[in-house]
Amino acid sequence: MTGVTISDNQVRRLAHEVGHELIARRDRKAVEHRRRQLEPRTAVVPVAVVVEVDGGRIRTRAAGAGPGVHEAQNKEDKVACLATLSGPTFATDPCPEPPESFRCPRRVRRLVQQMKGPAGEVAPPETVDESTPPVPAGEPEGAERWSPTRLVRTCVASLEGSTAFGPMMAAEAQERRFYEAPRRAFVADGQAYNWTIWRGYFGAFEPIVDFLHAVCYVFSSAAAVSPDEASGWSQYVAWMRACWQGRVGEVLTELDQWQARLGEPPPGEAATAEERRDPRRVVAHARTYLGNNRDRVAYPRYRRNGLPTTSSLVESLVGEINARVKSTQKHWTRPDGAESILQLRAAVLSQDDRLPRFFAERPGSSFRKRDTLCHKSEGATAQTVA
Questions:
Q1: Region at 87 (left for phi over 0; alpha for psi -120 to 50; beta for the rest)
Q2: Residue 68 region, left (φ>0) first, then alpha (ψ -120 to 50), else beta?
Q3: Confidence at residue 116, expressed as pLDDT on a 0 to 100 scale
Q4: Which helix (H) or strand (E) element contains residue 327?
């Protein structure tokens, strides 16, 4: 656009320089949050908000080992989506029956495949672009929309563990006044560290386990205990409807009966795909998942309160981040190279113009007066006032 030639190395150096500055700003805000010194950056208190968290995988290589990829490792990158919402509340459940998308065999099978379900299904080969989100949960044809609408999304991403990532999320939520919102939700899958973050920083938010993951578990279990595909589909629909209507206890009772009939799974982790498809393991995994999260599956109440029941927002966000940082050819230098690029990607995907604002406030920006000019201006103003 400018006709100025910039080398690849210069772009790379500047990108990591800005990324490290964003890391320093992010960490400083987390400290200010802990010390109760962080000020909100908006005057408006949102009506409804959701915090969603998920993880992806990013390829990394050792630093300082010369050209090429050395000591390659896959590292988990944690991603949080913080979104304001718009939508009504209801006196009764606005959608007591599951949407058609969960009763279509083709769509459900595709959903389970995309989410790499727990029953030992073989995941499709990894592709360069993983930005396609899972199949969404839509409303029936012609029905009034009941699910909330996303307004403004911001993003937090890091390779740090949950102990450090929780304060980052909390600082972002405080700056956006999420803790003051009348309706608050925290949505995640069943990973233990997600709920550790919830207990530590978002305990006043409604805890909601992602319905899409529950669908994967009941679908896999129904297929594992049924003699044929038709009966497996019928069993899935019955269990899925029970979960949708908040009757997870009934599903757990039936799974307990199936576990007693099949026997307990063999000790140890499954080493092969065939072992992972063992019906005893599949049913045991579903029982554990639903049992551990039975207090987070009150989906009728969530719908009445105008809150989301799936983690589709963060699933989609993870895909958008992966589209930039993940492919078979990309190995980011750990930890600095990977962490700095995640900050840039998170800033680009946040819908609050944070990257333009950062450059406008950055020392040396053409949009900001030099300190010397500011001092001269302040001195002249002081003399005029005097």
A1: left
A2: left
A3: 61
A4: none
